[in-house]
Design a protein that fits this description.
Elements (H helix, E strand, L loop, with lengths): L12 H11 L8 E2 L3 E20 L4 E6 L2 E10 L2 E4 L2 E2 L10 E8 L3 E10 L3 E7 L11 E3 L2 E13 L7 H5 L4 E2 L3 E17 L1 H15 L9 E22 L2 E22 L2 E24 L3 E15 L3 E20 L7
Antiparallel strand pairs: 1-12, 2-3, 2-4, 2-18, 3-9, 4-5, 4-6, 5-7, 7-8, 8-11, 9-10, 11-13, 13-14, 14-15, 15-16, 16-17, 17-18
Length: about 350
């Protein structure tokens, strides 16, 4: 006779990887109904709003924003991954340079949002004020000397992920059966780029300041300003199941962001560094949703709001952008474990 030692079975790498991925979707089925299907197709209308408030060291202020864009298009989803493309029907014949891409990954534990947004020259002056808070009568005047872009990502972790479903509210891939909430923690990175033609701005606004007898608007001859934001956030989200198949959701997060910026100025045809600053500021992210979902069909609406603030004595800006979505979708490709139910 000979003794033998049984070695533990070594599972293939792919099977181990599948188990790790499944762990991200472990849930309490008393609170959350799992997704019954592998695929989803959705039609979505997205309405986008944005605004930039610029303020110089004299306290003079300009508020710029474009007309809201109205986009519509198809989306396709596979489990946690959701990808789509929309057409801006509000600017089909205007030659607008608006570009907007979004890619989202959702599981019950972790969520990731990737985004890229670039706007053209279709801004309007919504408000202009002197250093004495005297309004300048240029409201809703078109201004083609401003451009903006933003790109980045948000990564967040849901602590109470077994009872609270973030995807049920914003990705429609599960259903919340009993009301629940959860703290959220996350990190984010965004890169902003602003281009302002101050010469054109001065020609447009300062003829009115001369009539009013107040100091002219005097922003630096800024050709381009780049803002970078690295943030850590914390917040809370709650899903309220107020009727069968119905869900109302709200999520609020406050981010402490470290921001640094470099402005390029042009004098006598040469580029010079005008200012460079770094500081901490508070940003906010809000998400609100209303969903009807019977596991096969779903429909609803969601509102996502972002605010960013950069402040220094020479220059400060508050930026805001948000998306209001209205959607209807259909799940298909039922999973094996639900075929006989």
């Amino acid at each position: 006779m000979s003794d033998s030692i049984a070695l533990p079975e070594k599972r293939p790498f792919f099977k181990r990887l599948v188990e790790v991925v499944k762990e991200f979707s472990r849930i309490d089925t008393n609170y959350i109904e799992p997704q019954h299907y592998n695929f989803t197709a959705m039609l979505q209308n997205t309405n986008t709003y944005e605004s930039y408030t610029l303020r110089n060291e004299q306290g003079q202020e300009i508020v710029l924003s474009p007309e809201p864009s109205i986009r519509i298009g198809p989306y396709i989803g596979w489990r946690w991954l959701f990808l789509g493309y929309t057409i801006d029907v509000s600017h089909l014949n205007s030659g607008s340079q608006l570009q907007d891409w979004n890619l989202s990954f959702y599981s019950n534990q972790v969520g990731v949002d990737l985004f890229y947004r670039k706007t053209g020259e279709d801004y309007k002056i919504r408000l202009a004020k002197s250093s004495d808070d005297i309004p300048i009568p240029v409201k809703d005047v078109s201004f083609g000397g401003f451009r903006a872009s933003i790109k980045g990502f948000n990564l967040y972790y849901i602590l109470n992920h077994k009872k609270f479903s973030y995807p049920a509210a914003f990705n429609q891939s599960t259903c919340q059966k009993i009301s629940a909430g959860s703290p959220l923690i996350g990190i984010g990175y965004t890169k902003h780029k602003l281009t302002l033609d101050t010469e054109e701005l001065g020609k447009m606004v300062n003829r009115y300041t001369a009539i009013l007898g107040i100091d002219p608007i005097d922003f630096p001859n800024t050709a381009e300003v780049n803002f970078t934001d690295i943030a850590v956030s914390g917040g809370y989200a709650y899903n309220w199941v107020f009727a069968k198949n119905w869900l109302a959701a709200a999520s609020l997060s406050l981010a402490v962001g470290y921001k640094y910026s470099t402005g390029d100025t042009e004098k006598d045809g040469e580029q010079e560094r005008n200012f460079s600053f770094s500081n901490f500021n508070f940003d906010g992210v809000g998400r609100f949703g209303l969903v009807w979902n019977n596991t096969r069909w779903y429909a609803g609406s969601s509102l996502i709001l972002h605010t960013y603030r950069y402040s220094k004595s020479q220059f400060s800006t508050n930026s805001f952008f948000g998306n209001w979505n209205i959607y209807v979708g259909y799940n298909f490709g039922i999973k094996r474990e639900y075929r006989n139910r």
